[in-house]
Structures are given as C-alpha cells and as structure tokens.
Amino acid sequence: QYADTMGFVDPKDRERVTITPTPATFLLHLNGLRPDALLICNSKMFAADDYFRLKSPEPKPPTFTMDSNWLFGSQSSETLRHLAWADVYLINLPEKIFELGLKQNGGDYTIPSKILSKIRVVGLLPSYAPNAAKLSTEIRTQYGISGSEKMVFVYGGSGVTTYFESLQHLFPAVKNLRDAGKKIRVLFVGDRTNVPPPYQEAEWVHVREQMEAKEFYQTLASADLVYQHQGLGTLTQAIAASVPVISTVANPIAQGPEHAHAWEVGPFARAGACRMLYFDDSQATHQNSIKELLYDEPLRHQMKAAQAELAGSGEKATYEIILASLSESNHDTNSITK
Fold first, then answer.
1. Model confidence pLDDT, tens digit, residues 246-277
2. Residue 19 to residue 4: CA distance in whole angstroms
C-alpha cells in the first residue's frame, strides 16, 4: 500500500529503500543482498504467514527483532506467533518493567526459558530530550494557558484508532473540577468526533485533529498531565518528558487473556511511573486521580522520580547489543560501525 508514494520515507533516503510486496519476495531479495545483519521490527509482524515465520533466508544473516511486549508464551494464537528463527529478541522496555511483567515477579506473562535466553532488554525507544522551559512556555501560551492554569494532554486516536471508552470519564471529570474553581484546559489530539458532543465546542477544550510527530512530543512535554489509553508510544513520551500520566484500560476480567492492556500497563503502574485506571472505575475515581496528579505536588514528584529511573537511550543499548552479538559470532562489524 505504500509502494506508490513511500510517504513514510524521508525523500533523501528513498533510493536506499526497497519495498517488497510479500514475505516470499522479501526473502528472495534478502538472499541476493547478503546483509551483515537483519533487524525486524516486531517478531509477530508476519505471524499468520507460515512461509515467512518458519522459513529463514539461506544463508541466514544474524537476525534481531524489536518487540515492545512480553508476547512470546503462545504459538497457538495466530496473531501472536513470533518469528522462531530470530537469534535475538530485543525488547524496548526498561529492564525493571520487563521483570515486573513476568509472572514469577507478580506480573501476568510466562515466557518459555528457551525464548527467554534469547531476549535482551534495551530500554524505551525512541528516546527523547526534555523541552527547554522557554519552549514549553511558548506552547502553553499558544493554547491560552497561563499562570497557574493546568494543561491536560490527551491523544484520542484517529481513523480506525478510537478510544471512546478510555475517554468517557475525562471530560465530565474536568468540567466538575472547573465548576469547583480549578483552572484546567484540555488539549485533545485526534478526530474531533472522538470528543463527546457536549464538549466539542467547550471554551476549555482545544482540538487538534492532526499534529506532526515532533510537535506532538513537544506539546505533550509541555503539559501538566497526560491522559491516555495504553499505547507504549505515548507512555514512552510522557516518561521521557517527566509528565505524570493516567492510563485507562479495560478491566482484565472483562478482556481476553494474553494481550490484555492492563497486563501491559500494570508493570509501569507498579513501578510508580503512571496511574492505571479501568474503564469501569467510577467517574469519581477518575476525577480524583486527575485532581491529585495535577495538584498534589509530593505525589507528582514521586511519579516523576519513578519515571526518571526508567528513562534512557534504548538506541545506544540496541546498537551495542547488535555489535556485541556479531563480534561474538566472529562476524565482521566494520561495515556496520562505519
């Protein structure tokens, strides 16, 4: 679907990009290239394609995958079967979070020892630099936020990605707090139709249907609170920016096992880096959490400190692990380091 426009590739790099229409043609192309290493983003990407999942290239280059989850416990689910012939599974989670997600440490995931031995945890990706204070002030001013006013940043989804259930308590809760004298504004990024109709034209709700990636992070980093569903992309940015965050997910009792969002967010909540609430929690619970994480400074400081423990350069760790693995196998790394 991208072959015509290649809109996701920087124009200066397009000559270096080859798009293959099927996994089979990818493997055929790969055999001709004989690369130093193969890095696959998401080992479950071709889970339903047995040809790719079970048949490695010949000869097979050292193969690494980048995964953002613990989903290696089942080969029975068609959507979760991982690439069996990878040499190393790189997990872009902080070490502490990965460990907290394992069942033996109070989490919900069990990973077979054979796979666990091939896992290397690299930390959050991508890494981000904090905003300069001046930039944050300029962004807040752009949305009419001044003085002691508070800003809540919300990613509400677009297109097929909508988060109505995760937002159902937010707007009534903020309205109640404003009615009680609190000065709070909401910046909503996503389709306007995902904002409940009574609040679409509210003076204190700012809607941006589209936002470029760099601006998205800089705006999020200027907020006092992030209110989101479960996405690791947004959560990673909140942690890097040291912004308290509320993640709202389905109660795992009502959701299927294995890929329950609460299982994924739970380790971050147990580490103190976010607060996890359920869709079926009361509006009062959501409202009190918003109030606490906006105005309780000791609580905000505690969460920021927990976030600081998780921040780091996942890119650096990934690069070093790949080079070390290639060196251990006596593979020439000169072309990669250059």
1. 999 988 875 555 668 899 999 999 999 999 99
2. 10
pLDDT tens, 80-133?
788 888 999 999 999 999 999 999 999 988 898 989 999 999 999 989 998 999
151 Cβ contact partners less than 8 Å away, ≥ 6 residues apart: 140, 143, 145, 184, 185, 186, 187, 222, 223, 224, 225
- Burial of 113 from C-beta contacts in 10 A (0-12 / 13-18 / 19+): exposed
Identify the residue whose tokens are 């790394």.
333
Encoded amino acid at 110, one letter: T
Cβ burial of 268 (10 Å; 0-12, 13-18, 19+) is: buried
For the stretch 4-34, pLDDT in tens is 555 667 778 777 888 888 888 888 888 888 8
What is the phi/psi pair of residue 278, to 5°? -100, 155
| pTM higher than 0.85 | yes
